[in-house]
């Protein structure tokens, strides 16, 4: 369990120059048993390390903590403008990044085999994903970090992974904040923000996902706040949303705030506010396709719009329930929503009413 100190921003491996580059420190840690630590001693005016794409990704094959500055400006590890992944984790390594900015790669960090923890870090400008996992059975934890101006913030492609996101923000990404493409992911999100992404805030598109979102804000995303399932497929996802704000999202399709598609998905929503969302077709606030089950308790679904393009196709400004979908509501307000086709401004479809609801006409 050695400590290696990076004291130059130069790239490459040169054992005779008297300094240690980041690439050299990672190579040394790979060859040292136990979980090592990499620290930085760089001049305050030179906090940026540009990785040479000709030398390839920084391949981490053994467990390591990579720790940036504890005060002052963060150290930036950036790509050189060519498409390549900046860091790759393999060989079952357990890796922690703390207080670093990682920018301008294809993927910022790709996990092929291993586990990842990210704390107090920034990911920006990545051409594909800030963090991508191709691994199966990996654990990824993100705490107090920012994902901005990437393609996806986090993209999980492998199966049976565990992703935890705490107090983090996903802003202005060109696709989704979080994209779950691999099956059987367990995702836990708490006190996080997903805003102004060009896709979904959270895209739960594969099968067998178990997702819990607590106390978070999902706002101003351009293709639904949360999308659950894939049209025409059996998904078997379980999603729980508690104490969250789902506001001002839009889509040209259905489900501006929350879109439940495919079949055999279960959604539980308690103590949420769903307002200001719009859909070009059905369900400005929430859309539930046939074959899915939704339970709503003590939610406010107010001021959403269906058929936002006013072409007469789309219903249920607040809530759309497809034929054969099972939706039960209790202690929930669904009022002051709009259907620009002017047929079903608040609810379209049959529901199970457990009482205590306030539903507009």
Automatic annotation (TrEMBL):
Taxonomic source organism: Moorena producens PAL-8-15-08-1
Pfam annotation, one family: Beta_helix
Name of this protein: Right handed beta helix domain-containing protein
Right handed beta helix domain span: 89-238
Highest taxon in the source lineage: Bacteria
SUPFAM superfamilies: Pectin lyase-like
